[in-house]
Design a protein that fits this description.
Layout lengths: L1 H16 L12 E3 L4 E3 L6 H6 L1 H21 L3 E4 L2 E4 L22 H9 L9 E4 L4 E4 L3 H10 L15 H28 L16 H12 L34 H15 L10 H23 L13 H14 L14
Length: 345
């Protein structure tokens, strides 16, 4: 009896520790059950935050979660395969996307044809039964190639073929051509969907290309010169082609006063803007001006200072006249130079 009372007492104590599901708020929460979200418009208790911040936030989060769960339990329920779930209503808040909605992948040429003809694609199994090898063989992959080598370990040479022909190498070459053909078709689908010029993915047999593709290829080849086709000779009966690329747009020279004024105002606004870093660094600008003045002053002093080994000629003075005569004498153009055969040095 005592043991049963102890168990009941323990259960009552555990129940008392559990908090009730009935939570009361001054203002009810704002719910968006489609996104399983709720926002609390009630103001925070700053006194409780200063007393014990972690305890207050933990209790606030617990109460709000309890109110949200109570609302979810009020929704209609569905039971399927012993699993009970609630039916969420449509969301009220529209959350913006980080990236734009992806565009649907364009159909290839075969997919468009199959859609027009109503051809449905049935999913095939990964393995198929091989009658000759008597086992299941994968449809593609390394084990498929190994099974082909086991099955075709010998190949017959046709009667109209050279007996020394390597049929295995010929089969490998045909497979390589099929792979290249599939890759060419893939590039054609990309070109057709993205409207890329045909040059670069044309087939070997030019006769299979359409007239528009050949015309566009010829126009691109003509414009690929250094002069952008300005001096290229045009073919007879050459159809006009649309020029690709952006062209510069110039405003009218006369008659558009409003556009000219607007352009000048935009230019002045651009010049009047401050640099990207914010305000101008006044100290740096002052140091730069002082440095420039010092350089100009030093350059002026260097020009004013006479060079070593040469005397300055001072015109319209006695000293200057003596210097002039001395220079003429050394050059052989003065009085001392007369009477000699030469005219000086």
């Amino acid at each position: 009896m005592e043991r049963a009372l102890a168990v009941l007492t323990r259960i009552e104590d555990d129940v008392k520790k559990l908090k009730t599901t009935d939570v009361k708020k001054e203002e009810d929460l704002e719910y968006d059950l489609g996104l399983v979200m709720a926002s609390d418009p009630n103001p925070l208790d700053h006194g409780a935050i200063r007393a014990d911040r972690e305890l207050y936030l933990h209790q606030l989060a617990r109460d709000n979660c309890q109110l949200l769960i109570n609302k979810l339990f009020e929704l209609p329920k569905e039971t399927k395969d012993d699993v009970t779930a609630v039916v969420l209503p449509p969301a009220q808040m529209r959350i913006p996307r980080e990236k734009p909605v992806p565009k649907p992948k364009p159909l290839s040429k075969w997919e468009e044809y199959a859609k027009a003809k109503g051809i449905t694609r049935n999913k095939k199994s990964k393995k198929v039964w091989d009658v000759e090898l008597k086992r299941w063989v994968p449809r593609f992959g390394a084990k498929k190639a190994q099974a082909e080598r086991e099955k075709n370990w010998v190949m017959e040479v046709p009667a109209n073929t050279d007996p020394n022909t390597d049929m295995f190498a010929q089969a490998t070459e045909k497979k390589r051509e099929r792979v290249a053909k599939n890759e060419l078709q893939r590039l054609r689908n990309i070109k057709r969907n993205m409207k890329v010029p045909t040059v670069g993915v044309t087939p070997k047999d030019v006769s299979k290309s359409s007239t528009s593709e050949l015309t566009e290829a010829a126009a691109l080849a003509r414009r690929s010169t250094a002069s952008l086709g300005q001096f290229s000779r045009k073919l007879p009966r050459d159809a006009p082609t649309k020029e690709r690329g952006r062209r510069r747009q110039f405003g009218p020279s006369v008659g558009d006063t409003r556009g000219e004024v607007q352009g000048q105002l935009e230019l002045l606004q651009t010049l009047g803007r401050r640099p990207a870093g914010g305000a101008v660094d006044a100290e740096k600008a002052a140091n730069r001006v002082i440095h420039q003045e010092q350089r100009e002053r030093a350059a002026g002093k260097a020009d004013a200072k006479p060079k070593k080994g040469k005397k300055r000629w001072i015109p319209n003075t006695k000293k200057g006249e003596k210097q002039k005569k001395a220079i003429a004498k050394k050059a052989g153009k003065g009085k001392a130079g007369k009477g000699k055969k030469g005219k000086g040095r």
